[in-house]
Automatic annotation (TrEMBL):
SUPFAM superfamilies: P-loop containing nucleoside triphosphate hydrolases. This is AAA ATPase domain-containing protein. Residues 168-334 form the Cytochrome c domain. Residues 1-20 are annotated as: Disordered. Coiled coil: none annotated. Keywords: Heme, Iron, Metal-binding. It comes from Asanoa hainanensis. PROSITE patterns: CYTC.
Amino acid sequence: MDPVRNPYAPGAGQRPPELAGRDRELDVFDVVLERVARGRPERSLVLTGLRGVGKTVLLNSLRSQAIGRLWGTGKIEARPDQSLRRPVAAALHMAVRELAPRHRAPDRIDDFLGVLKAFALRSNQANAKLRDRWQPGIDVPVKAGRADSGDIEIDLVELFTDAAAVATDVGTGVALFIDEMQDIPPDDISALCAACHELSQLGAPLIVVGAGLPHLPAVLSAAKSYSERLFRYQRIDRLDRIAADQALAAPAEREEVEYKAKALDLLYEKSGGYPYFVQAYGKATWDHAPRTPITPDDVRVAAPEAEAELAVGFFGSRFERATPAEREYMRAMASLSAEDMDVAVATSEVAQALGRKPASLSPARDALIKKGLIYSGERGTVAFTVPHFGRYLRTQP
């Protein structure tokens, strides 16, 4: 079949042609937006799940919903070595610029931007030379005395409160979207929780929508004990059979191509229902199928190509980031996880498999967690953040 017409899109954060199986999450967020618009109290939202389940795609779709309701929006991707000040300042600058044309008092917008600039400038080191001092692209004078104390918790609370006030003026809201939320530094994640807590008590129209790995709730709970009640948590998992079939069949039907039922059976078996894998196997199968309908034989012929591409781009790139000691640790995990790659294994069992004391493996384990290759959902256990990663490791020499 014509590869130019291939509808599938296996890419990082790239929206698939059919966003299947996520109607519940979209509907929940629609209710959140409507409640906030009516002045009703509502919690911020946190999406968690393994890599490849479509968290970033869903985050972008939720942002589109907010934009459709004329909210001001901004998005950042957290990094473990970066404070929230600069990215949050840039995101809220974008959000308020979206609201500014509908605001009747330009001076009110300028006042907020002055506060935002003061907040952002606190990211500079006090002893930095003038040429090394970062300047945000905000063309208004600094408004001192608000969100510029240097204490990230105080400043974030004040900044969010002022941003919410601007949104109130225009009868709408502000939504801050944060990807890889588990990578926010500890002090900043604590400040973020405090700011969300303050906003929820005030009923202010600003919400945070975060996405991260399965251990994100534990990260938030360690920062602030009340975070368990502060956010609405939604676990994003693999697609069920009906949704996976829809993700494959609906785009094909728009190109006047059909699948045989057994071909869809095999594709679900190969992909496990993980959205990224569904797109990868769908793309390879389309390119290899000579005609419609697509058959199980087409899937079998195409599967090695899809697996080779995943081995390089999805699995291999992550494996290469690990040191020899870290790779040894992951191989031991893989040997213990049998055929189910998503079941956590005990760290004591990993140590036993390697013939080492658990304490001696702590540096490798902690480094792998920091790199986002494994996570600890419960004390004393670890699991891969990438589905099917154990199976990949067992095929490597």
